[in-house]
Amino acid sequence: MVIIMVMVILGNFEEVSILGNNGEASPSQCKEEKDLLVKECKPIMLGSNPTGSCCQRIRAVHMECVCPLVTPKIANLINIKRLIKQMKGCGRTVPHHFKCGSITTP
């Protein structure tokens, strides 16, 4: 499930209404965002393309909620090219040389 969350960290992220006063998500908000992301995007783990609701989650999640989960062990399991393709399929661009946890995009 963590692999799904990593997909969302590689694009430009939209602000959502659950932001706190300082513009960052609280720990409880991050947990809620991660749980919703996993729920909506679980089929991607089995090789499916993202659904509309999954893409919506991908566009809405805050990178500060998922970047800490990208450990070196997780990064070794990720196919960056596939992740970029999935992000583009959701209408998101992927910044070059973006660092998130243990991943840097090409």
From TrEMBL:
<keyword id="KW-0813">Transport</keyword>
<dbReference type="InterPro" id="IPR036312">
    <property type="entry name" value="Bifun_inhib/LTP/seed_sf"/>
</dbReference>
<dbReference type="Pfam" id="PF14368">
    <property type="entry name" value="LTP_2"/>
</dbReference>
<keyword id="KW-0732">Signal</keyword>
<feature type="signal peptide">
    <location>
        <begin position="1"/>
        <end position="18"/>
    </location>
</feature>
<protein>
    <submittedName>
        <fullName>Uncharacterized protein LOC132805153</fullName>
    </submittedName>
</protein>
<feature type="domain" description="Bifunctional inhibitor/plant lipid transfer protein/seed storage helical">
    <location>
        <begin position="22"/>
        <end position="100"/>
    </location>
</feature>
<dbReference type="InterPro" id="IPR016140">
    <property type="entry name" value="Bifunc_inhib/LTP/seed_store"/>
</dbReference>
<comment type="function">
    <text>Plant non-specific lipid-transfer proteins transfer phospholipids as well as galactolipids across membranes. May play a role in wax or cutin deposition in the cell walls of expanding epidermal cells and certain secretory tissues.</text>
</comment>
<keyword id="KW-0446">Lipid-binding</keyword>
